[in-house]
Amino acid sequence: MRRILLSLMWRLTRPFLFMLNAERAHRLVMSTLSAAPRLHGFFIRILVGPPRRFSPIMVGGLRLAGPVGLAAGLDKDGEAVSFWPALGFGFIEMGTVTCHAQEGNPGPRLFRLKPEGALINRMGFNNEGAAALAERLAAIRAAGRWPNIPVGANIGKSKITPLENAIDDYLESVRVLAPVVDYFTVNVSSPNTPGLRKLQEAEPLHALLSAVVAAAKELPVLVKFSPDLDDSALSGAVKVAITSGCSGIIATNTTCSRPLTTGRLDETGGMSGAPLWPLSRARLQLILDEANGAIPVIGAGGIRTAAQAQELLDAGCAAVQLYTGLIFEGPGLIHQINDGLKPTE
Fold first, then answer.
1. Is 55 designated active site?
2. Which residue in 82, 158, 189, 190 is the catalytic one?
3. Is residue 266 very low, low, confident or very high in pLDDT (cuts 50, 70, 90)?
4. 3-state DSSP call for residue 179?
5. pTM of the full predicted structure?
């Protein structure tokens, strides 16, 4: 009954949010949550009850509280870290954050495709910078408000940093954030920073990942790949992730293609959401086959149902992440997915 009430509240609220442009609605929600994240979490728990309890899931040295995680992009600057566990997430990922604060690309830069349940974004890693995120997270830790689930930082290259200096840029973010996060994800697959995807090529990828793994020391390092790599490049990238000592792979990021869509085909940027699912699912299968159990794989890309999440877990994914599905389905989605999953061993 309580979850029916939350669903009804979302159905009443969503039309008003969707009257705003996508980025303005996002900022409205984030500013509201950041003002009192624990209070909002308390109300969510009243409405839906406590999150389902799973047996601990070990992924690359991380102890996940559940198999569904928050993907990077929703909470870039760690504004609502204390809130997300109330939705049922087993782990959360901040960012993408860069060494240097940056405004990102000119707007408009975030678009909804309502009938398709998709987003197109060309945000360009807009964020307050690694130092500001570290300061905020340190304050949350010091105040005793740190979540009881792993919190990761998704790190990317600053736009002002030349590609040949990318490693130093990533390493500075690692240095600043290592004392306050539980893991890192290396983002080399966003389509919205010029030249970034070149870092997925074997030689620069190995150099970058090896350096980040060494700098992160005991903290797990994951890497996030694009669904737009061809089979050979993607297989090679998986091999590099393994040989460079990464703790896991996240796949996939957004796509520059426009699968199964009918709207805003002229908008550049990365597409996420429901239309990405068939493409991401196929790329994930290739990654799982290439990894062959040598490295954990976290599935992402178009997930919005328990059946999809379970399909990836049954295929061999250690866990899953989502973001866009939450925008269209509302705050009860993670509880719905968790409730629909098989018990973990």
1. no
2. 190
3. confident
4. coil
5. 0.94
